[in-house]
Amino acid sequence: MDLNTTDSYHHLLETISETYIQGQVRAMQAVNTQLVQTYWQLGQHIVEFEQSGQIRAEYGKALLNELARDLGLRHGKGFSRSNLTYMRLFYLRYPICEKPSHILSWSHYVELLKIEDKLERNFYERQAIAENWSVPELKRQKAASLFLRLAASKDKARVLELASQGQHVAQATDILREPYIFEFLKIPEPHLVSETELETLLCDHLQPFLLELGKGFTFVGRQYRLTIDNTHYKVDLVFYHRILRCFILVDIKMGTVQHHDIGQMNMYLGYFAHEENTEGDNPPIGIILSRDKNELLVKYATYNMNSQLFVQKYQLYLPDSELLRRELENTLQLKHNGTVKRC
Predict the structure, then answer these.
(1) For 29-56, what is the mean pLDDT?
(2) Are 101 and 118 in contact (CB under 8 A)?
(3) Is 3 exposed, middle or buried (0-12, 13-18, 19+ CB in 10 A)?
(4) For residues 149 and 115, what is the distance between their CA atoms, to the nearest angstrom?
(5) Taking the C-alpha atoms of 29, 31, 32 and 34 in order, what is their torsion angle to the nearest 10 degrees?
(6) End-to-end alpha-carbon separation of the chain, Å?
(7) Greatest CA separation found in the chain?
(8) pLDDT tens across 294-330, in order?
(9) In Å, how far are 14, 20, 23, 30 from 17, measured between CA atoms?
């Protein structure tokens, strides 16, 4: 009998293969956990040696150079002066009451340790864990100033909550960002693109686009056709949010949003609520993305609207992080250091 042709053999083959892969993943996770713990302990040894007064202050910088040389000779790679510096900083920024998570890798923590502000560092750590960010994804979100973009428009209490808990998605406003950053498209400045070209580029770069939109977005379609009274309309992009359990309709505008753009999106929302929603779906959300917006026009054009319709700005290039930081500092009134629990 040829075992390769039997269903039971194929089932056995798949079971063994899956068990082996799961075992590899668990082994890698165990190695990573031990490595992170070990580097924290090495940082502890360095700091405690310094604090015990066994070296004079002026020789502090030389200590890491000496350790890098001698440990490198004993154990090979992994003990560069840079890596030892991060180990020392690791212990200082994650004291005993704030032990690092075993979920993130050492490479994740090296990126996190580059962030001086504790509120900002806490946010990225929690988001990386919650959304299972890879190291490149963490780097991108840092470069795009995600925390600053989310925090700059919030009050002090919500900034502190954002920093301590990460971004929590419970209602429509929780998924909004201002501005959205599409630097991953790598459109040369000051090159101009049309709405259709921008839409195409976003669909061609769907993975980073979904990452920029945030947690819970799933892609449904592009140029989604709907017919009302024998007239055809098309929504630029349609998503479904698996946490909020609703459709999210996105229209892209190159210029400033006009009142008729808002009216059109509101019509789309009405159509989806009555024609596309099924049992268990919540009311749809509409987001109009534009390069600029007239706040007063948006206020009046959405007057008395009960629908979840939002006009948000986007940028093709990285934001001015210092400007966002100043806005955040104004929100916190430069007193956030006194409100964060310390060991």
Answers:
(1) 83
(2) no
(3) exposed
(4) 16
(5) 120
(6) 68
(7) 85
(8) 999 999 999 988 789 999 999 999 988 888 888 888 8
(9) 5, 5, 10, 20
Amino acid at 87: M
CA distance to 34, 103, 124, 139, per residue, from 30 (Å): 6, 10, 23, 24
Residue 287 has pLDDT above 90, yes or no: yes
Q: What is the pLDDT, as a whole number, of residue 340?
A: 41
Q: Which residues contact 199 (CB under 8 A, 6 or more apart)?
A: 222, 236, 237, 252
Separation CA 266–CA 251 (nearest Å): 11
Domain 180-318 adopts which CATH fold?
Answer: Trna Endonuclease; Chain: A, domain 1 (3.40.1350)
pLDDT digits (tens, 9 = 90+) for 207-217: 999 999 998 99
For residue 89, give the amino acid letter.
Answer: L
State the pTM of this model.
Answer: 0.79
Place of tokens 């459709």: 247
**pLDDT of amino acid 301:** 93
Cis peptide before 179 (omega within 30 of 0): yes
Q: Give the 3-state DSSP-derived string for 131-169, with helices as H, strands as E and coil as C.
A: CCCCHHHHHHHHHCCHHHHHHCCCCHHHHHHHHHHCCCC
The pairing of strands 246-256 and 231-241 is antiparallel
pLDDT band at residue 337 using 50, 70 and 90 as cut-offs:
very low
Tokens of 118: 């504790």
Q: To 10 degrees, the CA torsion angle through 314, 319, 325, 328?
A: 0
pLDDT in the model for residue 54: 60
- Parse the chain into domains and list their residue ranges: 7-103, 115-175+319-343, 180-318
CA distance 202 to 208: 9
